[in-house]
Hints:
- This protein is mostly helical.
- Among the domains are: 49-156; 159-203, no CATH class.
- It is 55% helix and 3% strand.
- A two-stranded parallel ribbon has the order 1-2.
- Strand 1, helix 2 (36-40) and strand 2 (45-48) form a beta-alpha-beta unit.
- Helix 3 runs antiparallel to helix 7 (126-135) and helix 4 packs antiparallel against helix 6.
Amino acid sequence: MGFWIDTEWAQIRKELEERVDYPKLEVLFCDGGQGIEENLLHAMKPQRCQWHGKREFPYFLYADGFKKAEQQSLVEKLQAVPVRTLTQADVEKLRPEDRPLVEQMVAKTKHGFEQLLQALDPQRYPRTRTYIENLMEPVTTFLKHWLENDEVIPLTTNAIENAFSRVNNRIKRVGRRWSEAGLLNWLKVTFYKIFKSELWTKLWNPESEFPKIKLVSLQISWRWSNAIT
């Protein structure tokens, strides 16, 4: 649909509404970043990325003042929540006869999060507790969607994360030596190459008619070198 750099989520929402039939969108996949759900959700159901939930939990514990050695028991509680054991391949294999098992997993997942919340004292873990409260419902949307629609949807944002990693690699290898304006232009080229390959192919098709360039001047400069060879 597009890509944006240094743009407010409210502006992104406005532009998206011009490009798609927004009320018909069913699920919003996101990493839980600030402002995303508040501005983009509308009538959609949020699906929080499983991978981000696992990765970000220790950061919130650290923000509440608990270092890695003190986090282990709570991290294990999160890992024990049933939904954390599922992969995309597992969901792809679901069949109608699995419905009772899926309903049971949703219920056990809710119970597992409730137990985790009980272990998170609001006074000691204010940030972590709020994070889990916001995570526990959206993280099982993919299972509820399957129960309601018999349709498999992603449980992570890995597809786009993989593409972003390719963008990141290009920035590290090339963009770090560019000016800010040059880097932004390089990002645009990279995004088109990765996310809009059909446009990239069309742009660089040898049969495309490009305006002819006329060379009007040529300048050459030189200087003596004192280096000994």
